[in-house]
Design a protein that fits this description.
Number of domains: 3
CATH class of the largest domain: Alpha Beta
Protein name: diguanylate cyclase
CATH architecture of the largest domain: 2-Layer Sandwich
InterPro entries: Diguanylate_Cyclase, GGDEF_dom, Nucleotide_cyclase, Rev_trsase/Diguanyl_cyclase
Largest sheet: 5 strands, mixed
Enzyme class: transferase
Helix content: 55-70%
CATH superfamily of the largest domain: Reverse transcriptase/Diguanylate cyclase domain
GO molecular function: diguanylate cyclase activity
Oligomer: single chain
Pfam family, one: GGDEF
Radius of gyration: 30 Å
Number of strands: 5
């Protein structure tokens, strides 16, 4: 039996302790990768923070974990979203039954009217009473049916909105990680070549640490808006944290590099100031890596890795640049 390497476990726990992180499965996993697989995307993201002398925070660990698909490791899902959708489906079924009941009542009215027809003809004294009762039953059934259909319509709209929300990044309004993966899978299935560009805001952690997360959120929205303005109609999403993605249905990597360069120059033209003091924040920039995917779903994963490696080279060569894979 191979010897168990407790030393790595001890070092991992020491890393968590030094950064004041609880030893949860997620934190332990990321700490282990940071220490023993530092060249991986997760390892580089953590090292970029700690190499600058900062203590990594829990929210940063959560962001890195989410950005690199960490939820898939534990099979996590958006429980709240799932519960909401299940509740809406239940309500739709319930209201459908109500609509069916209202329709049954309308049918019962027709049958009862037929049965009462002979009495109405032979006993005119009761005619008005019978007709009045039938009209009242019809109106009640119609009212229940109308109300049921109104509520069904509202719930369908709410379900559609919830479905859209599940694929939309709340802060920037861009497509989120889930929507990005769906889009890439659809292109792969259709056999469409696609140029994938990953871009990451330069020194974003220092923005958050110096000015606070509210300013950081404004920077994220500014970069998202710039990418939208320049890169539409191509697909644009927030890959996670301060990282964005642009997907072009093309096989022209050079065109992808030029497009991201145009967005980068447009961002550099914008003057970003603090609202409270009107103090200029200086240059807001991003670095990017661009790669070509041609083939099925496996090509997506390989190309994302290539784009990430090109992005890392852009960072290491001085930031604020776009490089092809």
């Amino acid at each position: 039996m191979a010897a168990v390497d407790f030393e790595k476990g001890d070092k991992t726990m020491a890393f968590l302790k030094s950064h004041r992180l609880p030893p949860s499965p997620q934190n332990y996993t990321l700490a282990y990768i940071a220490l023993f697989d530092s060249g991986s995307p997760i390892g580089r993201a953590i090292q970029e923070i700690v190499d600058e002398g900062y203590r990594i925070k829990q929210e940063e660990v959560d962001t890195i974990f989410d950005r690199h698909g960490g939820a898939a490791i534990y099979g996590l899902t958006d429980k709240a979203q799932g519960q909401r959708a299940a509740h809406l489906r239940h309500q739709t079924i319930k209201l459908g039954e109500l609509a069916s009941s209202a329709a049954d009542a309308t049918g019962a009215f027709a049958r009862e009217l037929t049965q009462e027809a002979d009495h109405m003809a032979s006993d005119s004294a009761n005619t008005l009473s019978i007709v009045g009762r039938m009209i009242e039953q019809s109106q009640q059934a119609q009212g229940r049916l109308t109300e049921a259909m109104r509520e069904v319509k509202e719930l369908r709209e709410e379900l559609e909105a919830a479905r859209n929300d599940a694929h939309r990044d709340e802060l920037t309004g861009l497509a989120n990680r889930r929507a990005i993966e769906v889009h890439l899978a659809e292109l792969a299935e259709a056999g469409e070549p696609r140029v994938i560009a990953l871009c990451d805001i330069d020194k974003f952690k220092s923005v958050n640490d110096r000015y606070g997360h509210s300013v950081g959120d404004r920077v994220l929205k500014l970069v998202a808006k710039t990418l939208e303005d320049i890169c539409r109609p191509h697909f644009i999403g927030r890959w996670g944290g301060e990282e964005f993605i642009v997907v072009m249905q093309s096989d022209n990597v050079e065109a992808g590099v030029n497009l991201l360069d145009l967005a980068r120059h447009e961002l550099a033209r914008k003057e970003f100031k603090l609202r409270e003091t009107d103090e200029p924040m200086g240059l807001i920039s991003f670095s990017g890596g661009v790669a070509l995917a041609a083939g099925g779903a496996d090509a997506n994963a390989a190309t994302l890795k290539q784009a990430d490696q090109a992005l890392y080279r852009a960072k290491s060569e001085g930031r604020n640049r776009i490089l092809p894979a």
